[in-house]
From TrEMBL:
Signal sequence annotation: none
Cofactor(s) the protein needs: pyridoxal 5'-phosphate
Tryptophan synthase beta chain-like PALP domain span: 87-252
GO molecular function, one term: transferase activity
Upper taxonomic lineage: Eukaryota, Viridiplantae, Streptophyta, Embryophyta, Tracheophyta
Keyword Transferase: yes
UniProt name for this protein: Tryptophan synthase beta chain-like PALP domain-containing protein
Record-linked Pfam families: PALP (PF00291)
Length: 278
């Protein structure tokens, strides 16, 4: 929520410059939150998900948040229990430190509301209302829930497809597990996720996600992250069905590939560059 909305909701104490903002995640929200909190006079306090250390946390993002002098070091506070452990750590910090406001993207309804107010209308406008299927991977569930709600209000016939890791198919009713599609598949059902707008859930393996992310780079010149590759993989599965022939399928690429330079996603490229001679 923005600063004005905080005031409208009757939480004026949160506007004090001495307050701090805290949240946990894979890096995208923390990157933006560190900018916003600094602008409105709060002190950023960020928890990052364990991502095999360097595999997703862009050094520039860590350095940027460190430059803002957060109340705790993001470098030395990687929880060890995945998303649940990360959020437990955030709650612990909230109890230990004064004037801390937890943004909590997994429970904050402003998350899905933003996609309802902005992403959904943008898709509807750009496709002139001709979108048939919307496909999106779910992390907090904000994108698929907000966009799904808006598109369904415009046309109940639009199909909403949720994407999750095959290794952790919790939305499909399976058990949580480890995977490398960062930013999605947290291993639990976030409060923000509105399953009532979802018509189908498609699972994608980490290998499928990485393969399609690499394909986007080679064939389309789009350097995207692993979750973007997962969205493409799911789109191709949905598009391959006979009943979807000729239908307009829309998705989003939420992650850039720059932060994955040291990950398995671009391992072949690194090896090739290392072997080059001049």
């Amino acid at each position: 929520m923005d600063r004005e909305e905080v005031g409208r909701r009757g939480i004026p104490s949160l506007l004090k410059p001495s307050s701090s903002s805290s949240d946990g995640g894979a890096g995208r929200e923390e990157h933006i939150a560190s900018d916003i909190t600094q602008l409105i006079g709060w002190m950023p306090l960020i928890e990052l998900k364990p991502i095999a250390s360097k595999d997703g946390v862009d050094a520039r993002i860590v350095g940027k948040m460190e430059a803002y002098q957060p109340l705790c070091s993001v470098k030395d506070r990687y929880p060890t229990l995945g998303f649940p452990g990360m959020y437990n750590k955030v709650e612990q910090l909230q109890k230990e430190l004064p004037n801390v406001h937890v943004l909590n993207q997994a429970t904050n309804k402003a998350n899905s509301e933003a996609h309802f107010r902005m992403t959904g209308p943008e898709i509807w406008k750009d496709t002139t209302g001709k979108v048939d299927i919307f496909v999106a991977a779910s992390g907090t569930g904000g994108t698929v829930s907000g966009v799904g709600k808006y598109l369904k209000m415009q046309n109940q016939g639009i199909k909403i497809v949720c994407v999750e890791p095959a290794e952790s198919p919790v939305i499909s009713g399976g058990a949580p597990g480890k995977h490398k599609i960062q930013g999605v598949g947290p291993g639990f059902l976030p409060d923000v996720l509105d399953t009532s707008v979802i018509d189908e859930t498609v699972t994608v393996t980490t290998e499928e996600a990485m393969a399609n992310a690499r394909r986007l780079a080679k064939e389309e010149g789009l350097l995207v992250g692993i979750s973007s590759g997962a969205n493409l993989a799911a789109c191709l599965k949905v598009a391959s069905r006979e009943e979807n022939k000729g239908k307009m399928i829309v998705t989003a690429f939420p992650s850039g590939g720059e932060r994955y330079m040291n990950s398995d996603l671009l391992a072949d490229v690194r090896e090739e560059c290392t072997a080059m001679t001049f």
